[in-house]
C-alpha cells in the first residue's frame, strides 16, 4: 500500500479557512487523516489555442490509500465532442503506483502518463506528455500569475476538500497528428486533497412524483422555464465552474450555485475571484451571478452572461460564447469559452457537470414542443 509522505500542513477542513496561504510543501502529496480508500489527491492542468478553438486537459487522481492513480489526457476542438470524435483522448484507470514515497513535485504518472516538474514552489512548473503511436505530444510551461487561491472548506462544493486554483501563463507546444502547434495562453491549474468518489449519503429528499414534477424540497425557487426548474433541483450533484482571462490583469473564476438560481435563471456565484487592473479580490457571493443559455439540440451551454462584484465593490460584466465542447459522461459538457470582458477578449472554460439521467430530463424539457 502506497502512503504519501506527510509533507504538507494539516489538511482537515475544520483547521483552515480561506485565509492561510499555501506553503511550498503543498506542491507535494498530503497524508490522509485515516485509511479511507477514497482519499484522493488531484493535479489538473488546462490550456487552449484560441486561434484553433482547441481546449486541452491533463488530469490525474491519486488514491494514495489504495496505491493507484487514474489519469487522462485529451484535446478537443469543433470537430466533435464525444470521445470517438475528439482530436486526442487517452485514459488509464487504477494504475498501480509502485514508488512507496512518490513526490508530486517531480513525477511521471505511472502507466505512460504525463510528467510534472516543479521549477519554483507554488508558481512555475513544466508538464510533458508523449504518445508516439498517435503522433501526439505536449510540452508546456506554467508560470503562475499569482499565489494559489484557497477557497473556504465546509461550503459547497468544498465540503471536505482542501482546494486551490491558480491562473498562469501557459506556453509551449502541442503536437497533434504530427502537426506542431504553438501554445501561448492564460489558463488555470487546480489541486485538491480530500475523500472523493465514495458512496453518496442517502438522499433524504422526496422522489419526484409520477407526473414528472419535482417534489417541493427539490427546488428552492419554483417557477419559470421547466428545463431551468429541472436544472436547479437540489441533491443531484450538479457542479458548474467557469473562468475566463484576457491576460495577467483581467478576468474571473467562479463556482456557480446552480440549485440556488431564481426562476428567471440567474444563479449566484459561490467561490472565486475578480481580477481587475492586475489585482485579485474574492467575489461578493451576495451579488455576483450568472445566467446560462443552452443549445436546444445538445442541451450543452451555448452562451452565458456573468455579472461580477468583488468584496471591494469593483464590478465586471462578462459575456461568454462556447466555441467547442467535450462530453465525457453523456451528460453535461466542458466548453472552451470565448469571453467578452468589457472591451477585452478572454478565453477559458465552462465545466458543466451533471448526472447523465438528470441531464437527460433537463434536455427532454428543453426540446419539448408542447
UniProtKB/TrEMBL annotation:
Q: Which InterPro entries match?
A: DUF7065
The Low complexity compositionally biased stretches are 208-217
Q: Which residues form the DUF7065 domain?
A: 26-196
Q: Which domain of life is it from?
A: Bacteria
Instruction: Please provide, alphabetically and separated by semicolons, the GO molecular function terms listed in this UniProt record.
Output: kinase activity
Q: Where is this region: Disordered?
A: 1-33, 191-225
Mind listing the UniProt keywords for this protein, alphabetically? Answer: Kinase, Transferase
Protein name, per record: Tyrosine-protein kinase JAK3
State the species of origin.
Mycolicibacterium chitae (Mycobacterium chitae)
Amino acid at each position: 500500500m502506497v502512503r504519501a509522505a506527510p509533507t504538507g500542513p494539516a489538511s482537515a477542513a475544520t483547521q483552515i479557512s480561506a485565509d492561510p496561504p499555501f506553503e511550498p510543501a503543498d506542491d507535494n502529496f498530503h497524508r490522509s487523516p485515516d485509511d479511507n480508500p477514497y482519499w484522493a489527491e488531484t493535479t489538473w492542468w488546462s490550456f487552449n489555442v484560441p486561434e484553433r478553438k482547441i481546449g486541452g486537459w491533463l488530469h490525474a487522481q491519486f488514491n494514495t490509500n489504495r496505491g493507484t492513480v487514474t489519469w487522462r489526457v485529451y484535446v478537443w476542438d469543433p470537430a466533435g465532442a464525444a470521445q470517438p470524435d475528439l482530436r486526442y483522448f487517452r485514459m488509464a484507470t487504477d494504475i498501480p503506483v509502485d514508488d512507496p514515497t512518490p513526490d508530486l513535485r517531480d513525477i511521471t504518472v505511472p502507466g505512460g502518463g504525463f510528467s510534472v516538474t516543479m521549477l519554483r514552489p507554488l508558481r512555475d512548473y513544466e508538464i510533458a506528455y508523449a504518445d508516439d503511436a498517435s503522433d501526439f505530444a505536449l510540452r508546456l510551461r506554467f508560470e503562475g500569475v499569482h499565489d494559489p487561491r484557497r477557497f473556504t472548506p465546509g461550503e459547497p462544493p468544498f465540503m471536505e476538500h482542501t482546494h486551490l486554483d491558480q491562473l498562469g501563463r501557459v506556453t509551449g507546444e502541442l503536437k497533434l497528428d504530427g502537426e506542431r502547434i504553438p501554445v501561448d495562453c492564460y489558463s488555470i491549474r487546480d489541486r485538491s486533497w480530500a475523500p472523493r468518489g465514495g458512496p453518496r449519503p442517502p438522499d433524504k429528499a422526496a422522489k419526484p412524483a409520477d407526473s414528472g414534477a419535482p417534489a417541493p424540497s427539490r427546488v428552492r425557487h419554483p417557477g419559470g422555464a421547466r428545463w431551468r426548474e429541472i436544472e436547479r433541483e437540489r441533491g443531484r450533484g450538479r457542479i458548474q465552474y467557469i473562468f475566463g482571462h484576457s491576460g495577467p490583469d483581467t478576468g474571473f473564476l467562479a463556482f456557480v450555485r446552480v440549485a440556488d438560481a431564481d426562476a428567471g435563471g440567474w444563479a449566484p456565484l459561490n467561490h472565486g475571484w475578480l481580477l481587475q487592473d492586475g489585482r485579485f479580490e474574492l467575489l461578493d457571493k451576495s451579488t455576483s451571478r450568472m445566467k446560462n443559455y443552452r443549445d436546444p439540440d445538445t442541451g450543452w451551454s451555448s452562451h452565458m452572461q456573468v455579472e461580477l462584484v468583488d468584496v471591494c465593490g469593483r464590478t465586471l460584466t462578462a459575456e461568454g460564447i462556447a466555441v467547442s465542447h467535450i462530453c465525457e459522461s453523456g451528460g453535461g459538457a466542458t466548453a472552451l469559452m470565448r469571453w467578452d470582458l468589457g472591451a477585452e477578449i478572454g478565453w477559458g472554460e465552462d465545466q458543466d457537470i451533471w448526472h447523465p439521467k438528470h441531464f437527460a430530463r433537463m434536455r427532454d424539457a428543453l426540446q419539448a414542443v408542447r
